[in-house]
Amino acid sequence: MSETASISTGIASRYATAVFDLATEDKALDALEADLATLEGALADSEDLRDLIASPIYSRENMQAGIAAVASAMGLGPVLSNTLKLMATKRRLFVVPQMVAALRGMIADHKGEVTADVVSAKALTKTQSDKLAKALKAAVGKDVKLNATVDDSIIGGLVVKVGSKMIDTSIRSKLNTLQNTMKEVG
């Protein structure tokens, strides 16, 4: 990991821990989780917001005013809203995506959940998602929340990541394995 990435992760972790502790103290973890979903959606949808948090050309005052307006418009709770304002004051908004990811992990740990990233060639049905979640719960011993995405380049099958483990049953990977085996033979 590069030194810059390590520093960013450390900064994000400290803010995430503070926000998590405040939300836990206020018994507002569910509200925080909803706020995180709203913020993630805004970051995914708005190039202007991503620019605001990442660009060094904005002054502190512009960052503070911008993030305050965004937090108010999204209806974020006081804990997350005030944290974002503080981060703008300290010129630390660039770590918001890492902070959100760290908070997601802390909330999941608190709930006894684990998130599984699932990539499939076509969207999973509700029945398929439920069966997969049940099978993964049996394997890992915790409730599993699925983060499903679609990537038709895997042709078929699934790629499942739970923590540091990855299970790749995609046809693409099987074809790649076959291709490598054939290169070794011929």
CATH superfamily of the largest domain: N-terminal domain of the delta subunit of the F1F0-ATP synthase
The coarse silhouette is: globular
Tell me the helix content: 55-70%
| End-to-end Cα distance | 39 Å
Unreliable stretches = none
Alpha-beta content class: alpha+beta
Largest sheet: 4 strands, mixed
CATH class of the largest domain: Mainly Alpha
Task: Give helix and strand order, one letter per element, not per position.
Answer: HHHHHHEHEEEH
Strand adjacency order, main sheet: 2-1-3-4
* CATH fold type of the largest domain: Peroxidase, domain 1
Number of helical stretches of at least 4 residues: 8
The strand count comes to 4
Rg, Å, rounded: 20 Å
Give a short overview.
This protein is α+β, with helices and mostly antiparallel strands and 186 residues long. The chain is built from 8 helices and 4 strands. The chain has helices at 3-25, 29-45, 47-54, 60-74, 78-89, 96-111, 126-140, 171-185; strands at 113-120, 143-150, 158-162, 165-168.
Notes on the structure:
This protein is of the alpha+beta class and 186 residues long. The protein folds into two domains: 3-109, N-terminal domain of the delta subunit of the F1F0-ATP synthase (Peroxidase, domain 1, Orthogonal Bundle), CATH 1.10.520.20; 113-185, 3-Layer(aba) Sandwich (Glutaredoxin). It has helices at 3-25, 29-45, 47-54, 60-74, 78-89, 96-111, 126-140, 171-185; strands at residues 113-120, 143-150, 158-162, 165-168. The chain has a four-stranded mixed sheet. Strand 3 and strand 4 form a beta hairpin. Helix 2 runs antiparallel to helix 6.
